[in-house]
């Protein structure tokens, strides 16, 4: 009897331990690390031999490396919208129809609509503590400076510490401006016209050919003064009004200081993990690296073999290592899914006036940020979960940063929203070897609002055969199963200068009009055989050329039928600066200066 009772007690204990372990595995923590403009050719684990990234490489060795991981957009704002929602950015209105595809002012009224559901919202409803530390870039306010309708706290995050817009050259004195082209058009060209007009009128008046009233000269001088005054105000006020740090709803540093910025944000991320070590948590650490302006602390400045870019990359890698170390110290690594990626490819056109390259490496791939050649959208993708995901695995199936949404939701026990299309796919069957094929048969590559290209990974050998007879009567045709990954471009950007690997005249490539070349029939590549996209296929080189394109165009048409008209969050009206939305840590007009980072940091939440 006593023995039976002991056995029963032992069985109950084992059942309790099993249930506890099952519960732990079913509700893991999530640490999502998102770099900015990091190229797939930058980390050592993706082939770089001279840039030191030991911690990203450590993460790769302990998990799965995706070699065909794709950003849903080659620009920051739409890519991050897709990442957060698991949906193509065109579905949420986060895809611009103009040349400006991202938010550049903190006082813009556009942003990720409140109706969109982020993975943070889903996990918060499951009892997770949620935090976003670093870059947001998905809008701030709608109608007044305090509504914060687009702010991270309105999208499921309990805690936010970082930059509500983005890191720009204009945020760091002496690093130039991203507005050079706009200033040339809106300031220097009008000033030249005014100067020529004044000079012409003065000469004609001196020669007695025409009578020019003095008020005309006064008006022209006044107009020139207005233009110059506007330029001076812009140069003086842009940095404090747009480059500031927030902690939750409050500005803590305006303008933002780059001094030990990575260290400060990393320390805060580590503290968040420590505070929530005994409860499920979601941490999104969105690095300001590698977007220009480049920066690094004294411990990393001048230490790499790749100038300022390498210094910043190695500092970011240090930050990754700090987060991994905290997980190890708290014995959380085995119950934490860690994801590392970049929002898009490296910005190849980032070159200083001194000729120093401030953009990264996209490896063997063509193009970069702001275009849908592989270099613009193929990004690092690493996932680690010890004991659940096999270490050291490499997967070459097409995956998307939109896949994180359903993957995280399912692991956290949250049902997916049923009132909308989710374009991402759960990655776990692929990561755990339960499936050897990506769930994405088709992926659609948008350049802002415009469908730029379609990727097709056929799911079976005879997808294109109209009948069984043809399978046997055309044995010479290559199989469309397995490694074949077709990519068709409806238009491509015009690189400049000729033979370059980017649009250096405009700093980024644009998506329509005179800046692109349209293709009819579409430009077709087999990415599995030609990853550099150098040799477009023809009806001669690919016997099923027209059938492949027809299948892809039909898929694009079916996809277009699923789209709905939504407000354009990146319209001119939503992009422009609105003074009533401007946030300022001081009540004295536009004199916005404060630094409460240290004080607030010491008394942390």
Protein described:
With 605 residues, the protein is an alpha/beta fold. The chain has helices at residues 2-26, 54-61, 76-85, 119-125, 180-206, 214-242, 261-275, 307-329, 374-377, 404-411, 428-431, 468-473, 545-561, 572-575, 597-602; strands at 29-35, 64-70, 129-135, 159-163, 245-247, 250-254, 281-286, 336-342, 378-384, 393-395, 399-400, 442-447, 450-456, 486-493, 516-526, 594-595. The strands form two sheets. Strands 1, 2, 3, 4, 5, 6, 7, 8, 9, 10, 11 and 16 form a twelve-stranded mixed sheet that branches. Strand 5 and strand 6 (250-254) form a beta hairpin. Helix 2 packs across helix 8, helix 5 (180-206) runs antiparallel to helix 6 and helix 7 runs parallel beside helix 8 (307-329). The protein is globular, with a radius of gyration of 27 Å. Residues 14-25 and 461-481 have low confidence and may be disordered.
Topology of this protein?
Blueprint: H1 2-26, E1 29-35, H2 54-61, E2 64-70, H3 76-85, H4 119-125, E3 129-135, E4 159-163, H5 180-206, H6 214-242, E5 245-247, E6 250-254, H7 261-275, E7 281-286, H8 307-329, E8 336-342, H9 374-377, E9 378-384, E10 393-395, E11 399-400, H10 404-411, H11 428-431, E12 442-447, E13 450-456, H12 468-473, E14 486-493, E15 516-526, H13 545-561, H14 572-575, E16 594-595, H15 597-602
Parallel strand pairs: 1-7, 1-8, 2-10, 2-11, 3-4, 3-7
Antiparallel strand pairs: 2-9, 4-5, 5-6, 6-16, 8-9, 12-13, 13-14, 14-15
């Amino acid at each position: 009897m006593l023995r039976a009772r002991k056995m029963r007690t032992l069985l109950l204990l084992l059942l309790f331990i099993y249930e506890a372990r099952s519960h732990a595995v079913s509700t893991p923590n999530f640490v999502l690390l998102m770099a900015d403009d990091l190229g797939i050719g930058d980390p050592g684990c993706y082939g770089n031999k001279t840039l030191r990234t030991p911690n990203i490489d450590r993460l790769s060795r302990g998990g799965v490396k995706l070699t065909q991981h794709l950003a849903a957009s080659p620009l920051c704002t739409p890519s991050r919208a897709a990442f957060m929602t698991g949906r193509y950015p065109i579905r949420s209105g986060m895809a611009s129809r103009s040349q400006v595809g991202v938010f550049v002012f903190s006082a813009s009224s556009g942003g990720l609509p409140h109706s969109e559901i982020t993975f943070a919202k889903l996990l918060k409803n499951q009892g997770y503590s949620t935090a976003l530390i670093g870059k947001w870039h998905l809008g701030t306010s709608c109608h007044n400076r305090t509504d914060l309708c687009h702010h991270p706290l309105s999208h499921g995050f309990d805690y936010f510490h970082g930059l509500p817009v983005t890191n720009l050259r204009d945020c760091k004195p002496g690093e130039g401006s991203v507005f050079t082209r706009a200033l040339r058009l809106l300031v220097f060209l009008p000033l030249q016209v005014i100067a020529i007009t004044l000079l012409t009128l003065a000469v004609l008046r001196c020669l007695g050919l025409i009578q020019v009233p003095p008020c005309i000269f006064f008006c022209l001088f006044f107009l020139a003064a207005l233009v110059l005054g506007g330029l001076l105000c812009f140069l003086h006020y842009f940095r404090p009004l747009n480059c500031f740090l927030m902690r939750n709803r409050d500005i803590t540093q305006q303008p933002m200081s780059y001094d030990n910025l990575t260290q400060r944000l990393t320390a805060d991320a580590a503290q968040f993990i420590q505070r929530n070590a005994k409860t499920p948590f979601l941490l999104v650490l969105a690095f300001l690296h590698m977007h220009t302006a480049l920066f690094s602390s004294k411990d990393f400045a001048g230490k790499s073999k790749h100038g300022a870019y390498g210094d910043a990359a190695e500092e970011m890698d240090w930050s990754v290592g700090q987060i991994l170390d905290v997980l190890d110290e708290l014995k959380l690594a085995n119950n934490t899914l860690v994801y590392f990626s970049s929002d898009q490819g490296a910005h190849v056109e980032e070159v200083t006036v001194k000729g120093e390259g401030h953009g990264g490496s996209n490896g063997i791939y063509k193009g970069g940020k702001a275009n849908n050649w592989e270099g613009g959208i193929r990004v690092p993708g690493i996932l680690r979960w010890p004991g659940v995901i096999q270490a050291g695995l490499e997967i070459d199936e097409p995956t998307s940063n939109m896949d994180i949404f359903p993957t995280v939701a399912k692991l956290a026990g949250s049902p997916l929203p049923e009132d909308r299309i989710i374009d991402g796919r759960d990655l776990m069957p692929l990561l755990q070897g339960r499936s050897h094929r990506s769930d994405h048969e088709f992926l659609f590559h948008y350049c802002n609002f415009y469908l730029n290209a379609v990727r097709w990974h056929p799911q079976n050998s005879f997808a294109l055969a109209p009948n069984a007879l043809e399978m046997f009567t055309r044995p010479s045709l290559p199989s469309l199963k397995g490694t074949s990954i077709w990519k068709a471009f409806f238009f491509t950007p015009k690189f400049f200068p000729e033979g370059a690997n980017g649009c250096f005249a405009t700093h980024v490539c644009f998506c329509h009009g005179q800046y692109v070349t349209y293709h009819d029939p579409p430009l077709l590549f087999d990415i599995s055989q030609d990853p550099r996209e150098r040799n477009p296929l023809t009806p001669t080189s690919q016997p099923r050329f027209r059938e492949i394109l027809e299948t892809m165009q039909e898929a694009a048409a079916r996809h277009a039928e699923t789209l709905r008209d939504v407000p354009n969050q990146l319209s001119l009206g939503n992009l422009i600066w609105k003074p009533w939305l401007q946030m300022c840590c001081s009540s004295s007009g536009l004199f916005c200066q404060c630094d409460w980072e240290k004080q607030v940091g010491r008394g942390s939440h």
